[in-house]
From TrEMBL:
Protein name: MerC family mercury resistance protein
Keyword Transmembrane helix recorded: yes
Membrane-spanning ranges: 21-43, 55-75, 82-101, 107-125
Cellular component, GO, one term: membrane
Entry keyword annotation includes Transferase: no
GO MF annotations in UniProt: mercury ion transmembrane transporter activity
Pfam families: MerC
Organism: Erythrobacter ramosus
Length: 129
C-alpha cells in the first residue's frame, strides 16, 4: 500500500463523515435562513451580520467543496447518479440565491437548495451501503 493511501475502511469512514458534515452544513444554513427571517423581520435585529453577503458566499463554497468530495467520491464508488444530480440542483439553487435581492426569493432558493444538497448526501450515504 502506498504511504499516502488510506485503507478501504478509512476511506469509507472519511466519505461517510464528509456526507454527514454536508448534512450538518445544510442544517446550519437552514437555521441561519430561518433566524435571519425571524430576527430581521420580526425584531429588526442582526441585519448587519445575518444579511452579510460573505456568509452566503462562504457557505456556498463550503457546500461545494464538501459535496464535490463526498458525493463525487460516492459516485466513483457506487456509480449512482441520483445523489450527484440532486446535490447539483441544490447547489445551483443556492448559487442562484446569491444573485437575487434579499427577500422571499432568496430565502426560498436557499432553503430548497440546502434541502436538496442534504437529500443528495443522504442518498449518497444510502447508495454506498
Amino acid at each position: 500500500m502506498p504511504h499516502n493511501a488510506l485503507p478501504p475502511a478509512s476511506r469509507t469512514s472519511l466519505r461517510r463523515r464528509l456526507d454527514q458534515l454536508g448534512i450538518g452544513l445544510a442544517g446550519l444554513c437552514a437555521v441561519h435562513c430561518l433566524a435571519t427571517l425571524f430576527l430581521v423581520s420580526a425584531l429588526g435585529l442582526g441585519g448587519h451580520f445575518l444579511l452579510e453577503e460573505n456568509i452566503h458566499r462562504i457557505g456556498l463554497l463550503l457546500a461545494l467543496i464538501v459535496a464535490a468530495v463526498a458525493i463525487g467520491w460516492g459516485l466513483l464508488r457506487h456509480g449512482r447518479m441520483l445523489p450527484f444530480l440532486v446535490a447539483v440542483v441544490g447547489l445551483v439553487l443556492m448559487a442562484a440565491a446569491l444573485v437575487v435581492p434579499h427577500g422571499t426569493n432568496e430565502f426560498l432558493l436557499t432553503l430548497v437548495g440546502v434541502a436538496l444538497v442534504s437529500v443528495g448526501h443522504v442518498l449518497n450515504l444510502r447508495a454506498a451501503r
